[in-house]
Amino acid sequence: MFSKSAIRVLVFISAVFGFVFGAQTIVAAQTYSEEATLTDGVDGVDVNRSTTINARVWAIQNVGDNMLVGGAFLNVRDRSSFATIPRPYLAAFDPSSGEYVPDFLAQPNGTVYDIVDIDGQALLIGEFSSVNSVPNTHGLALVDPATGLVDTSLEIDLNNSGVIRTAAKSGNSLYVGGSFTSINVGGVQAPLTGLARIDLTTMKLDASFAPSVEGSGVWGIDVDSNGRVFAGGYFSSINATPDTETFAALNGDGSLVAGWNHGFPGPRCAATWSINCGAVNDLAVYGDKVFTAGAKHFWTAHATSDGESLAAKEISNDGQTVEVIDGMIVVGCHCSHSNSDEFPGVIDRYLRVIDPNALTEVESPTVNSKGGAGGWASAEDPRGCLWGGGQFSSSYVGGVQQPAWNLLRFCPVGVGSAQSVRTPATSTDKTPPNAPTNLTVAAYGSSVELAWNSNESQVGFVIMRDGVVVARTSGTSYQDLFVEPGIHNWQVAAYDMAGNVSLTSNASSAIEIAAPVNVALNATATSSSVADENSSASNAIDGNTDPLFANGSVARTDSGESWFNLDLGQPYNIDYIEIHPSENFGELNNRVRVYRSSEPILATNRVEAGLEGLRVWTGPRLLDEPRIERADLAAEAQYVRLLRTGRMSLSEIRVYATPASPTPATPPSDTEAPTGPQWKSVQPQENSTILRWGGATDNRGVVRYEVYERATGELVGRTIDSTFLLEGSDRKASEFTIVAYDAGGLDSGNIPTIEEEISFLACSAVRDGQTVEISWETNTDPDKFVIRRSINGGTNYWRSAPTGTDRIFTDTDRTGTIQYFIEARNGNTVVATLECDVTTEETEVLPEGLRSTFTDRSRIVLNWQSVGDVDIEVNGQIVAQHDRRWYTLRDLDPATAYTIRIRFAGSDSWSEPIVVNTNQ
Q1: Is 686 exposed, middle or buried (0-12, 13-18, 19+ CB in 10 A)?
Q2: What is the pTM of this model?
Q3: Which end of the chain is more exposed for a tag (fewer CB within 10 A), N or C?
Q4: What is the pLDDT of residues 401-421, one digit of tens each?
Q5: Of 598, 589, 679, 703, which Cα lies nearest the Cα of 643?
Q6: What residues in the chain have per-residue pLDDT under 50?
Q7: Is 357 left (phi over 0), alpha (psi -120 to 50) or beta?
């Protein structure tokens, strides 16, 4: 058995379990906490990805000291500060602390769909044309997990639109699957479609494995101990053989295994299979079984010997990822519904853990979280925590809903966050790359295409708009999407995998971005049908957003395969489309699909549109309330078509495009230098030291920092971030000075060093039942502070590096006797310490952000920001208790004012009231 994930079987003192090929016993299921151990996360999504699935995370894998996370995301989110850090498609996280690792700098220029550990190197698989600007890394790249450098012994190229989505290693062979029509590896080229094999000893394509995949490609692949290759996906057949849709077993030469039970594996739609009805999103082999998950709404188990169906379970929505973790099968899904076979009534469980022998779900390890697209990736870290990724909006911790930023981990009971044990990468390379040259820019709507020259290899590039870093990429071009109206210019800098940063490129010519306008007002609208004479397609582009069937303000189709079509009359650089719903919640905007093209669109359903290769934006599922949907397209098109299975009811469709602006005058020169960084701290590691600072500001933005040895004035290095990794484990902040630079090349001058003797002036800790706010004062700045917390005599440690003159740390309040001690340290030497005065402050927390988002004659839709059960009071009477941050008051009187307020359940304190009037 060869699986994408390593199998680690835990041995418990109370019982020993195991797995032996050909003879299976019950495997010990890891007992995970039901509550997430929160990590830093990722957000944003690449609108130019080929898939319409809204998952941000597609791959997680522990390689070396890091948990590598790949996907379609654009940024990392720091949980402690909520800061947004541009870091698209690939990021590293500390497996012990869950924190983002900034010194892992490998950079693809497109979505990463899979990551496989190949003998200690990270194999990146995805929709990218280059990694670290290294040529011949189209779709695959081997990356050193410590340095981020690409192993150039693997050279690959695909046809221009080719995508690799999945890979599996078996011995010295690497099997890859995706959507491509030709592939070249190590100089060996073949016209293969969707499946290929690479010889890892020669790093060349093994063209003797030559199956033919018909249809939309392979999404999952694995190999058993007998060398059989199992493929799943959205394909219609393999080797043009009937009844091999979506799932098949192949021999080592690419032929189908004779007599095997090929074909769609799920319990639904088997008799009338189509792309619209069935698919395999992923699969994995475990012993003598192959497990699949897919649409519609299933996971299955089949015998590897003959394909016999051993289990087929409904899981309330599509199965999405399959991984072997700790001797169990982990299936990701977007299971927001409660109608699963094994746990009916249980909702929002986006990772399902399955016993591979009993072929049933294990309840305790399944995780409770919320998110639209749900789970698309999972992996285990060295401490036994289960990591999950995809599209997660939140998770419950201590009964409180917390933001999740698409990445979660669920640890064994008693295991949580810990101090980092990873060794940061250090390098003796202090030579920065050359600055990019000949930067040019061109606007297309609100999108700006950048191109530049560079002869550097193994580098990434940072994109700066108006002096602020907005993105990273590899390669020598970038599309900056949805730029705000105004006058802007751009610069680019290169960075290598050692963290050295070049000087910035020339500033681009200035571009003025105009405000977007609604070009649908002049379009021609047609629809698949007209429900009545007052709801024709033209009503959807009349500028009227009234959601009622009044004055002909709603366009409505009959039931069936419904579509609305807009001919804009000419091509436009479309920025985005707004879809305004009518009041018919059950029939409107529930996963509406938006297609665009430069040619007339004739498809009447999503299967036809998929076969025509049309790009599509897919809306989310709705609950039952109206809300405006924004479809970000950033594409040139003349024709737009909205498709949905079932009736559609729209009050308005708006298509926004940005008109061309005249070339603006050159912006005035920058004469304002940045301020100096205001604080420093030192974090010692085993063989290195992390220097941190912050607080530098500039009217246009700080683009880089330079670190100097104080004694000699020698330049140590440049960095884009406010951190720098130093060799040696006992360095002091006072040994260095740091200079901030803006895009105009102006500098802040050196920041002061730490010389004054340090003493504490005061320290207090205020408890309010939920948090403890610790604040203190010192006469000057040490390298760092260490906060010690004692509960009933026990001791834990926190480390905090406050910015500027702020001296504050917020902890979660706990029951019991609590004490806090604070230390000031230079290097590892404690230079001052103080016990904090602890006081208790009784505070009543009120719900925040109460507002009305929709009204009509008989209803008011309420929305608020705070999480938790709330009582809802209307005109002095409590009418409901609700926990989902929105609620609809129904059966109200028209043209009537209602006074509304809310409070947390069990509280006596109400929010400020709002007054809302229903419509006449």
Answers
A1: exposed
A2: 0.79
A3: C
A4: 778 899 999 888 778 777 776
A5: 589
A6: 1-28, 752-756, 803-804
A7: alpha
